[in-house]
Amino acid sequence: MNTTALLIGLGPLLGWGLYPTIASKIGGRPVNQILGSTVGTLIFALIYAWSQGIAFPSGMNLWFSILSGIGWASAQIVTFKVFTMVGSSRAMPITTAFQLLGASLWGVFALGDWPGSMDKVLGGLALVGIIIGAYLTVWSEHKDAGNSRTLRQAVIWLAVGEIGYWAYSAAPQATSIGGEEAFVPQAIGMVIVSVVYALFLASRGEKLALVEGVSYTHIISGFFFAFAALTYLISAQPDMNGLATGFILSQTSVVLATLTGIWFLGQKKTTKEMWVTIGGLVLIIAAAAVTVMI
């Protein structure tokens, strides 16, 4: 792996690692966060496509790419909601674990990954490791019935949200479209969801997010997401890091997202909880590496 490929492969570490913390720091309601994030992503995608001369797709390539963006934005709305329940430092390891589980199971049942018996055994153990790692990141030294109930609700929400993240990853695979070509229509799908969501909430008596300044401040967080998404698409290309290595490198973002949430958002942990959390993060990354190397 050359230095350029490594640096590009670590782009998601910065982009996706800082994105949830920046979004939480800016504040506002989940609808403000998703609206600004998706608009920022679309601006970034349009500038990149124009600068690189990337053609706009048509036909099924276009519609499946838009569907991919709709899936991501729908899932991210759920994730932002969970941030308000348990904080980003707890939500990110859980949602990362669900995404890893979803991607692995999709690969097994739809793409024929892990064909041998030993592959399935190793893959199954890795999935168990991901689940254990996620549990360790939310382990609490001092049990509280109210907090435990909220955490269970958060896990259920994130499990439901995984459907959208799965669509984000799987929809483009139903066509022959390249990742960079799908970038702009994905962003269009994201914006469609955020605008519809804002209008829906307004119809139920909430303030229209489209006229709130904080929504547009979140364009900044959208740039971080878009940077991560683009560098991952480039990193996953065969002449760079390839899909497997690119995927592993992108998952390192959960470490930065969790730790910055603790350090900068006041999501405190005791010393023992901190060490257990770090152990869980290491286990998640190690298990992710196993699933893509089988």
From TrEMBL:
<keyword id="KW-0812">Transmembrane</keyword>
<feature type="transmembrane region" description="Helical">
    <location>
        <begin position="121"/>
        <end position="139"/>
    </location>
</feature>
<feature type="transmembrane region" description="Helical">
    <location>
        <begin position="62"/>
        <end position="84"/>
    </location>
</feature>
<dbReference type="GO" id="GO:0015144">
    <property type="term" value="F:carbohydrate transmembrane transporter activity"/>
</dbReference>
<feature type="transmembrane region" description="Helical">
    <location>
        <begin position="246"/>
        <end position="265"/>
    </location>
</feature>
<feature type="transmembrane region" description="Helical">
    <location>
        <begin position="91"/>
        <end position="109"/>
    </location>
</feature>
<feature type="transmembrane region" description="Helical">
    <location>
        <begin position="34"/>
        <end position="50"/>
    </location>
</feature>
<feature type="transmembrane region" description="Helical">
    <location>
        <begin position="6"/>
        <end position="22"/>
    </location>
</feature>
<feature type="transmembrane region" description="Helical">
    <location>
        <begin position="274"/>
        <end position="293"/>
    </location>
</feature>
<keyword id="KW-0762">Sugar transport</keyword>
<feature type="transmembrane region" description="Helical">
    <location>
        <begin position="183"/>
        <end position="202"/>
    </location>
</feature>
<comment type="similarity">
    <text>Belongs to the GRP transporter (TC 2.A.7.5) family.</text>
</comment>
<dbReference type="GO" id="GO:0005886">
    <property type="term" value="C:plasma membrane"/>
</dbReference>
<protein>
    <submittedName>
        <fullName>GRP family sugar transporter</fullName>
    </submittedName>
</protein>
<dbReference type="InterPro" id="IPR037185">
    <property type="entry name" value="EmrE-like"/>
</dbReference>
<dbReference type="InterPro" id="IPR010651">
    <property type="entry name" value="Sugar_transport"/>
</dbReference>
<keyword id="KW-0472">Membrane</keyword>
<dbReference type="Pfam" id="PF06800">
    <property type="entry name" value="Sugar_transport"/>
</dbReference>
<feature type="transmembrane region" description="Helical">
    <location>
        <begin position="151"/>
        <end position="171"/>
    </location>
</feature>
<feature type="transmembrane region" description="Helical">
    <location>
        <begin position="214"/>
        <end position="234"/>
    </location>
</feature>
<keyword id="KW-1133">Transmembrane helix</keyword>
<keyword id="KW-0813">Transport</keyword>
